TrEMBL record:
<feature type="domain" description="Histidine kinase">
    <location>
        <begin position="311"/>
        <end position="524"/>
    </location>
</feature>
<dbReference type="GO" id="GO:0005886">
    <property type="term" value="C:plasma membrane"/>
</dbReference>
<keyword id="KW-0812">Transmembrane</keyword>
<dbReference type="Pfam" id="PF02518">
    <property type="entry name" value="HATPase_c"/>
</dbReference>
<keyword id="KW-0418">Kinase</keyword>
<dbReference type="InterPro" id="IPR035965">
    <property type="entry name" value="PAS-like_dom_sf"/>
</dbReference>
<dbReference type="InterPro" id="IPR005467">
    <property type="entry name" value="His_kinase_dom"/>
</dbReference>
<dbReference type="InterPro" id="IPR004358">
    <property type="entry name" value="Sig_transdc_His_kin-like_C"/>
</dbReference>
<dbReference type="InterPro" id="IPR033463">
    <property type="entry name" value="sCache_3"/>
</dbReference>
<keyword id="KW-1003">Cell membrane</keyword>
<dbReference type="InterPro" id="IPR036890">
    <property type="entry name" value="HATPase_C_sf"/>
</dbReference>
<keyword id="KW-0597">Phosphoprotein</keyword>
<keyword id="KW-0472">Membrane</keyword>
<dbReference type="GO" id="GO:0000155">
    <property type="term" value="F:phosphorelay sensor kinase activity"/>
</dbReference>
<keyword id="KW-0808">Transferase</keyword>
<keyword id="KW-1133">Transmembrane helix</keyword>
<dbReference type="InterPro" id="IPR000014">
    <property type="entry name" value="PAS"/>
</dbReference>
Amino acid sequence: MRQRWSIAGQLFALQVLVVSLLVAGGTTGAVLLARSDAHDAAVEEVSAVAEAIARSPMVADALRSPDPSALLQPYAEATRAATGTDFVVVMATDRTRYTHRNPALIGQKFAGSVAGALAGGTVVEQYRGSLGESVRTVVPVRAPDGTVMGLVSVGITTEAINRKLLGQAPTVALATVAALLLAAAGAWLLSRRLRRQTHGLGPAEMTRMYEYYDAVLHAVREGLVVVDRDGRVALINDEGRRLLGIGDDARTDRRVDELELPAEAAALLTSRRTTVDEPVPAGDRVLVASQRETRFEGRTLGTVLTLRDHTELRALTGELDSVRGLTEALQSQAHEAANRLHTVLTLVELGRTDEAIRLATDELALAQQLTDQVVGALTEPALAALLLGKSAQASERGVELTVDEASRLEGEPLPSRDLLTVVGNLVDNALEAVAAAPPPRRVRVLVREQDAAVLVRVTDTGPGMSADQAAAAFRRGWTTKDGPGHGVGLALVRQVAERYGGSYDVTPATGGGAVLTVRLPVPA
């Protein structure tokens, strides 16, 4: 199987290639620049030597002598050796050489351009002569009256210039190798860091991982919120946005307190504490949240919060609890009715018929009175059944639960589920409050529709609440009971009230106890 290169490996190879090309280009440019500089330096050198020789009085005097070569040849060779040039030629205006590095060429014609020098100027050219290709200059030798009486040519061969360049080659090569090593080391360090960050994955693997992970995050039916070490939200999937009420266009690369999150969810994210299946109200929803710290190779990356929507489950659980309570109440009543029926039958057997009839009639009237009161005041069947069941539960716990005579609710002004949530939790809270209180233990329930709103008021004779307790009573997690799983009922009541734009409060009851009032406006 063909081995796939990781991103770090590909980047390292690409960097080495690019750096090698850049260094090669730079070296080539440096060589060309050095060659140009060497050529210009040679031109300046031969021009300076030629001008010095042409202006020497000795040269002018020698040109006027009967045998110029005898005087000029030693001088020219000494100057050539002293200046490091390759040839120094002094000639007549007709190109006849008086001096030359090769004595055999003295007396022969000079090969090269001299027209500019004969006109009084300076000739600079690169020419292939008797010594090979050279950079040369030709300048005039002037008489005292200014006329041109001879010419001087000084040159350096191209081979000599190249030898100087080759002498610089080790320095250039060393600089090139050093640049390559430094660039390769930098590329290796960068690729090593990138390899750690990408875990050695290749482009195809990272692309496939991103596509799969993105598909999973969008398809999963649990809300997911990822917060980094700096407290910034790194990721919220589609379900998380829906559950927390965040728009799709909202940027997530912000701090938790900068996003418009529900207060309880924001507090949980900010705390970074570990929790499992903790109920969190979010608007009109009840979410179950689990949060934990994420670590990789000993480093803390942040926290991950998962959310599940348990609103429907909570509502169904509440209805199930109501049905279960009603069932238990009916079982208790059946058991109590059986006892009373045995009593009536025994009285009949004993011949005390009148007492049996009176006992049966009283019990029937008492039971029918409560049923008629609840059913007559509340035509909503689920709510009536709930209160009848709660009445039986209260009786078993030694609590007297009564429905206020002013209660009146026609039809279903609000969904049964919301009414059951509010009334059921308020009554349960009241029963818990009075259960440990000294007698008399009473709970009174008022449910009525007035001023385009449903008013629910539950009064108990329990220990009551202080101002601080009353202020915190409807907050999630507040409870007077020990153990987990409490502090949710009144928070659900608050959610329903806020969803309808209603109100909720706690006030002291006359004679002790507490009055919990919830007002739910009826939608038009």
